[in-house]
Design a protein that fits this description.
Keywords: 4Fe-4S, Flavoprotein, FMN, Iron, Iron-sulfur, Metal-binding, NAD, Oxidoreductase, Quinone, Translocase, Ubiquinone. By secondary structure, the chain is α/β, with parallel strands linked by helices. Helix content is 43%, strand content 11%. The N terminus and C terminus are likely disordered.
């Protein structure tokens, strides 16, 4: 449930201040009355693409899909020429299938024109005349909202030919995916958009050189693009000033949340650097009465577990990384003391195993193997050495050892669960020793 993000100031909550009290979508007339498309008009009439790229670089805007890569640098990788053979494409990654994550859905359903404006500015900057929103197929309401918003923007002359009399042309198309987690990986997304099997591509070449239909392509997350209009409107100095005192190098705001058995599950726009404890206790209201926090995932199911000892870590990319996990999408999941970590981890690995594209051997075979071992441990039928095999699998599926980042992300919760809650995994082989002793006694008698 989305809570506590309305009636805020545009200077402190640039993403969400326009949200309506009744949570209906903000359509084009209302959006324009709230300074909507000001940043796009400024970009198209008064700025050069190189100037915008430098502005986004200076703002230190990072990708909000989980990787945290510099948006300005990503844009600067696109070719600079204007030859017709170099058609450029902009792809918006809206295939939000990370378990426990729902921030992009909120933005698309509530503020569709904020996304369209961000895409308009980005497309002008990278000289793209075609934009695609690759949307998770299950997001039916978001699809309906975006279709209407795109139609409104076309009617108002904010998409199509000669936008705002600037001479710039852009068409945006909505493409709904077929429901695969791997499509969140940008090259798998590109393959799926082209009608191919959704498997990642080898990099290099990167999409900026060879992307959709062999043309230069830039892929950005929904929340990333939604940050762009405010940066053009209010400037770099303002954007870099929005962060908590504990923040590292990250600037601006981030949609953060807490789910699980907390009193007030929800989503909030907050500055980088707010601590996880503040997010959990002041915003999510803490755990339901009678429960205690056992562990938490900082940003979706593919991030490593942290414990109560890490609650005072600032919520930003650098500090969460130093704590041994990843910020990811910053939509945290609370695990209470009634939950068995072996069962929870098995559930997560079953999802990642099912969603593997099957392209490379370590991921295709390693993840099902981890599920088999975890299932045995969960049913207290594990054998000596099972935990060590799981640790070896974590090593074999780590960064740089698979074709893409799917498996390395999948094993993050597994290896951290073993690290912090090994005793629960060891309990899964307790019956093995008990049964062995019984067999030995019978044999001796």
């Amino acid at each position: 449930m989305i809570r506590n993000i309305i009636n805020k100031s545009p200077e402190t909550h640039p993403l969400t201040w326009r949200v309506r009290n009744d949570h209906n979508p903000v359509w084009i007339n209302e959006y324009k009355s709230k300074n909507g498309y000001f940043g796009a008009s400024k970009a198209l009439h008064y700025m050069e693409p190189k100037e915008i790229i430098n502005l986004i670089k200076d703002s230190c805007l990072k990708g909000r899909g989980g990787a945290g890569f510099s948006t300005g640098i990503k844009w600067s990788m696109m070719p600079k020429d204007n030859e017709s053979r170099h058609i450029h494409y902009l792809l918006c990654n809206a295939d939000e299938m990370e378990p426990g994550t729902y921030k992009d859905r909120f933005l698309m359903e509530q503020l569709p024109h904020l996304l369209i404006e961000g895409m308009l500015i980005a497309a002008f900057t990278i000289k793209a005349s075609r934009g695609y929103i690759f949307l998770r197929g299950e997001y039916i309401n978001a699809a309906e909202t975006l279709r209407r918003a795109i139609k409104e923007a076309n009617t108002a002359g904010l998409l199509g030919k000669n936008i705002l009399g600037s001479g710039f042309n852009l068409d945006i198309f909505l493409h709904t995916g077929a429901g695969r987690y791997i499509c969140g990986e940008e090259t798998a997304l590109i393959n799926s958009l082209e009608g191919r099997r959704a498997t990642p591509r080898s990099k290099p070449p990167f999409p900026a050189s060879i992307g959709v239909w062999g043309k230069p392509t830039c892929v950005n997350n929904v929340e990333t693009l939604c940050n762009v209009p405010a940066i053009l409107e209010y400037g770099v100095k303002w954007y870099k000033s929005i962060k908590a005192k504990n923040a590292s190098k990250d600037t601006g705001t981030k949609l953060m949340g807490f789910s699980g058995r907390v009193k007030n599950p929800g989503l909030w726009e907050l500055p980088f650097g707010i601590t996880a404890r503040e997010l959990l206790e002041d915003y999510a209201g803490g755990l339901v009465d009678g429960l205690k926090l056992k562990a938490w995932l900082p940003g979706g199911a593919s991030t490593g577990f942290l414990t109560e000892n890490h609650l005072d870590v600032p919520m930003d990319f650098e500090n969460i990384s130093q704590a041994g996990s990843r910020l990811g999408t910053a939509l945290a999941i609370a695990v209470d003391n009634t939950i068995n970590m072996v069962a929870l981890t098995r559930n997560l690995e079953e999802f990642f195993s099912r969603e593997s594209c099957g392209w490379c051997t370590p991921c295709r075979d390693g993840l099902p193997w981890s599920v088999k071992l975890l299932s045995a441990l969960d049913n207290r039928k594990g054998q000596p050495g099972d935990i060590e095999i799981l640790e070896q699998l974590c090593s074999c599926l780590g960064p740089g050892k698979t074709f893409c980042a799917h498996a390395p992300g999948a094993i993050e919760p597994l290896q951290s669960a073993i690290k912090y809650f090994r005793v629960e995994f060891e309990a899964g082989i307790a019956d093995y020793f008990s049964n062995t002793s019984k067999i030995t006694c019978i044999h001796n008698n």
